[in-house]
UniProtKB/TrEMBL annotation:
<dbReference type="InterPro" id="IPR051450">
    <property type="entry name" value="Gfo/Idh/MocA_Oxidoreductases"/>
</dbReference>
<dbReference type="InterPro" id="IPR055170">
    <property type="entry name" value="GFO_IDH_MocA-like_dom"/>
</dbReference>
<dbReference type="Pfam" id="PF22725">
    <property type="entry name" value="GFO_IDH_MocA_C3"/>
</dbReference>
<protein>
    <recommendedName>
        <fullName>GFO/IDH/MocA-like oxidoreductase domain-containing protein</fullName>
    </recommendedName>
</protein>
<feature type="domain" description="GFO/IDH/MocA-like oxidoreductase">
    <location>
        <begin position="24"/>
        <end position="151"/>
    </location>
</feature>
Length: 235
């Protein structure tokens, strides 16, 4: 990352969920105080077992991927949580296992518990556990609870449901959305390259590093049974 900054080279991380209009609206809702102080988040990004043929072989090789489901899916959820709250993860607890794919050399399920710098508690389900009957081979969701309201975001249902007790809020509403987030990610990258360094990446190398640190801390917490504390200082 330092080399890229010195050479003024663009460094982007493919956290496509940041391009979801619903996630951007969720960030605005929190920043505007429309659900009060946030104190709890439940999130998940699950895949389908057995892994589809379209998955590259290295995904299930610890040597190449660094882990399994936790490394594959938790990073998108923890990044989304950091994105909407503006807070950093300072504590990680986790349990991981291999339950859905017999003989797999990496984890295919787990539960990650997070403590954020602002006191928010969160949980993440990164498991490869999506039922075959589900119309999508994955899901991505967030349930955010504040002192004066809550909202539920669902990627595959393309919805953001908000309920707030604040008199000036919109009450309970449905916010539909729908874009090709992969296309938006590539379009953003191309525009950044064309316009030069002054246009910041939507998800930077630092954001990628934070997500990696959290995933690695989850593996350490699962291995040791202890809470792993993380520093919030910049790298």
């Amino acid at each position: 990352m330092a080399a890229c900054r010195t050479a003024t080279v663009q460094f982007h991380v493919a956290f496509v969920c940041r391009f979801l209009p619903a996630l951007q609206e969720a960030k605005r809702i929190i920043e505007a105080g429309e659900i009060g102080q946030v104190f709890g988040i439940v999130g998940g990004n699950r895949g389908r077992p057995p892994l589809p043929p379209t998955y590259p072989a290295w995904i299930t090789t610890e040597e190449h991927a660094g882990g399994g489901a936790v490394m594959d899916h938790s990073v998108h959820v923890t990044d989304a949580m950091r994105f909407i709250t503006g807070a950093e993860v300072v504590g990680v607890q986790a349990e991981t296992a291999t339950l859905y794919n017999e003989g797999l050399a990496v984890d295919d399920c787990g539960l990650v518990l997070l403590t954020f710098s602002d006191g928010t508690a969160a949980s993440v389900d990164p498991s490869w556990s999506m039922p075959h009957a589900n119309p999508f081979h994955y899901d991505f969701y967030l349930r955010v609870v504040g002192l004066e309201g809550a909202f539920a975001l669902d990627d595959t249902r393309q919805s953001l449901r908000v309920a707030s007790d604040i008199p000036t809020s919109r009450g309970e509403v449905w916010e539909p959305f729908g874009v090709n987030i992969d296309l938006e990610l590539v379009r953003h990258f191309v525009n950044c390259v064309r316009e030069g360094v002054p246009t910041p990446p939507y998800a930077s190398g630092e954001d990628g590093l934070r997500a990696l640190e959290i995933a690695l801390a989850a593996y350490e917490a699962s291995r040791t049974g202890r809470t792993v504390e993380l520093r919030t200082t910049d790298h």
